[in-house]
Structures are given as structure tokens and as C-alpha cells.
């Protein structure tokens, strides 16, 4: 199954700069469950994978936000039950003057 999700929290902790510098359509995304998150026990962090020195020095993961709460609850149940979920950046919008970038990912499971 394939579905889209808009990422929340892209304007916090310098994530907007990471997105503007590294985000590209089709870029691989890693989802990280945060069951001990103090704001939401169903939290799913979203990281983009950035090659270091063209991949010669491995990769770096940078957090760009979270799956929105309404989508995270059912998705966290799938992840916790062992369903493999992969994701890629579907689109992003980060023009100058906008308070925070808008990133949409495509989820496959």
C-alpha cells in the first residue's frame, strides 16, 4: 500500500535549514519510532539520509520532523507489529520568506 503524509515540526531546531540544504524529491527517508516521546507515545520521527563525501564516508541521518499525530497513531501500530514501512520524499516546498518548509513523504507498506 502507498500513501502520503505531511511532516510536522519542520520549523524547529534548525530542521528548516537541513531541509533547504539537503532535501530532494525521491530522497530516502528513515522513520524512527519514539515510544518514550513525552508529547506523544505514538511519535514517529522522520530522518533524511545524507551521504557524507559522496557516500565514501558513509551516511548521516538528520531529523526533519515528525509524522503528524493523526497519521502516527495507526502507523505506529503497524511499525510496532513488525510491518516493514519504507519512505521517500515525495515533494517539498521551502521558498524564501516562508516560516517553515512543507515536506510530504510517500509511505510504502
Describe, in short, the structure shown.
The protein is of the alpha+beta class and 109 residues long.
Topology, please?
Blueprint: E1 2-8, H1 15-22, E2 28-33, E3 44-51, E4 59-67, H2 69-80, E5 86-93, E6 102-108
Antiparallel strand pairs: 1-4, 1-6, 2-3, 2-5, 3-4, 5-6
Keywords: Hydrolase, Membrane, Metal-binding, Transmembrane, Transmembrane helix
Domain HIRAN: 2-109
Protein name: HIRAN domain-containing protein
Overall, the morphology is globular
Return residue spans where pLDDT drops below 50 for at least 5 consecutive residues.
Answer: none
The helix-strand sequence is: EHEEEHEE
Structural class: alpha+beta
Distance between the ends: 5 Å
Number of helices: 2
Strand order of the largest sheet: 1-4-3-2-5-6
What is the CATH topology?
Alpha-Beta Plaits
Overall average residue pLDDT: 93
Helix content: 10-25%
CATH class category name? Alpha Beta
CATH architecture: 2-Layer Sandwich
Tally of structural domains: 1
Report the sheet with the most strands, covering strand number, pairing sense and barrel closure.
6 strands, antiparallel, barrel
